[in-house]
Amino acid sequence: MYYYRKNSRRKIVHAECCHFRRILNPGTTGYFQTLAEAYSAGYRLCAHCDALSKQYRKEEQDLQEYCRNNGLSVHLGKRGIWVRSPRSEWRMIPALGASSTTRTICTQVNDPVTCSPPITIRR
Questions:
Q1: Nearest by Cα to 91 from 71, 69, 119
Q2: What is the rounded average pLDDT for all residues in the chain?
Q3: Whole-angstrom Cα distance, residue 49 to residue 74?
Q4: Angle of helix 60-69 versus helix 51-58 axis, rounded to 10
Q5: Using DSSP, how many helices (H) and how many strands (E) does the chain show?
Q6: Pairing outcome for strands 12-15 and 2-5
Q7: What is the DSSP letter of 27?
């Protein structure tokens, strides 16, 4: 389940294991059964809960250097990692069907084609 603060305008959800979820007031806390429900309601995953964001921050310097050397740019957005080249733009997002956010789907923005096989982020 994913929890959110009902009276907040930030629209952030937290996984059950998140320490921020534990400090939410039970009287003002709502929940979603799945991450897909939260996304469709306009919510985003807490940066602390998001395995993709954690992995990006851990390897940010190497990614930036690789992209500079190969004519690419990369940045972390609200719902994934964006990689741009002069000809295309790619977005890596957490797989919604996964029980946790360890599976990642890579999609080309200009022409929505899913990468085969999906990229896996390990904790």
A1: 119
A2: 77
A3: 21
A4: 70
A5: 4, 8
A6: antiparallel
A7: G
- Read off the amino acid at residue 20: F
Backbone φ and ψ of 15, nearest 5°: -75, 165
Beta strands 104-108 and 80-84: pairing type?
Answer: unpaired
Report how far apart, in Å, the C-alpha atoms of 25 and of each of 9, 13, 21, 33, 81 are: 16, 14, 9, 19, 31
User: Where are any strands of DSSP class E within the chain?
Assistant: 2-5, 12-15, 29-32, 44-45, 73-77, 80-84, 89-94, 104-108
> Residue 108 is encoded by which pair of tokens?
């080309």
Question: CA-to-CA distance for 123 and 117, rounded, in angstroms?
Answer: 19
Q: 25 falls in which pLDDT band (50, 70, 90)?
A: confident
CA 122 to CA 119: how far, in whole Å? 10
Residue 118 preceded by cis peptide, ω within 30 = no
Query: What residue type is 89 in one-letter code?
Result: E
Q: Kindly tell me if the per-residue pLDDT of 114 is higher than 60.
A: no
pLDDT at 48 over 60: yes
